Amino acid sequence: MPSSFLLRIGDLSSLTGVNIKTLRYYDEIGVLPPQYVNPENGYRYYAPRQALLVDLLRFCTLTGIPLKEFSDFVTPDGRIRYADLLAVGKKAAEARIQEIRRTLHLLRILEADMRRCNVCPPAPTLGNSIQHACTLALRPFDGAVESDAYHRALYRLMGDLRTTGVPPAYEYGLALLFRNDSRERHIFIEVEKCPASRKIPGISLLRIPATPMLHTRTDAGGIEQASDLFTCALSEPELHLILATELFGGDVSMDNPAYELRCLPLPRTPRKASSPRACYYSS
Q: Which helix (H) or strand (E) holds 146?
C-alpha cells in the first residue's frame, strides 16, 4: 500500500455525502478510479483530492450531464476543464428550467380543464365555458370513437407528429367542422407548438384562440348526436367546431369513459381565393 495518506471508500462517502454504492458505480464506468486497490482484499483507497472529483461528478448528475461524458472535460495530462464543465452545466440547467416551466404551464391548463369537467352538465343540458387557446392537428376520419380504427388512427397521427418534430400535447378526440349543411369529420390531437412552416404533409393544423364555448357531458354513443345537441349554435352561418374528447374530472373510469362535447365558433378571417378553408387550417 502506498505510504501517502489515503481514504477508504467509507471515509470518502462520509466526506462527500455520496453513498458507497454510487462511488463504486463511478469506478465501474471509469470516472473515479481508486488511487489504490488492496490486492489481498479488494478494498478501494482514494486520494483526499478525489473528494473534489466526486463533487464534480455530483454536479454532472444534478445538471443532467451524462457521467460517461465527463472524460470529455479532462485533458490528457489529467487537468479538468472546469470552466467548460460549468458552461455546459449552466446550459443544461437552463434547459431543465424551461422544461419545468412548460410542465407547470401544462399542469395549470389541466387543473383548469379538470375544474370545468367537474361542472360539465350532462346532455342534453348545455353549459357555458371557455376553450383555452391551442393548436390542433387534424386528419380526416369517418369511423366511430372507441373503435379499433379510431385508436389506430390516433396512434398513427401521434407517431407522424413526433416524426415531424411536432410534440403532441395531452388532448385528443374527434373534431367535427360545420358550416350550414356541410360537415367534415376528423381525428385531432392537440400539439404543444405550431411548426414554423405551419405545414405538415397529410395533416391539417387549426389554431384556436381562447373563446367562449358551449359544452355538455355524454358517453361514446352520444357523440353521434352532437349536431342535435348544438342545433341552435350550428344554425348560424359561421364555421363551428365540435370537439369530442374524453372528460377528465376528479375520478376517471378506464372502462366506461365519459366524453365532453364542446361547440365553439371559429374566428372570421379573410379567405384566400385558392383555398376556401385556408383561413381556418392549412394542409
A: none
Amino acid at 33: P
**Cβ atoms of residues 257 and 214 within 8 Å:** no
All three cell numbers of 175:
373534431
164-180 pLDDT, tens digit each: 888 888 889 999 998 76
- Centre a 10 Å sphere on the Cβ of residue 44 and count the other Cβ atoms it contains: 21
3-state DSSP assignment of residue 128:
strand
Q: At a CB cut-off of 8 Å and minimum separation 6, what does 265 contact?
A: 211, 233, 236, 238, 239, 240, 241
CB 27 within 8 A of CB 18: no
CA distance 142 to 245: 16
User: What is the SS3 string spanning 39-51?
Assistant: CCCCCEEECCCHH
Residue 70 DSSP SS3: helix
Q: How far is CA 245 from CA 64, 124, 161, 238, 281, in A?
A: 36, 17, 19, 23, 20
CB atoms within 10 A of CB 175: 25
Distances from the Cα of 185 to the Cαs of 101, 137, 140, in angstroms? Answer: 34, 13, 6
Query: Can you read off the three cell numbers belonging to residue 88?
Result: 455546459
Q: What is the pLDDT of residues 127-159, one digit of tens each?
A: 999 998 889 999 999 988 888 999 999 999 999
Threshold 0.85, pTM exceeds: no
Alpha helices, DSSP H, located in 75-177 = 82-118, 148-163
d(CA 153, CA 6): 63
Residues 6+ apart with CB under 8 A from 253: none
Look up residue 194 and give its DSSP letter: -
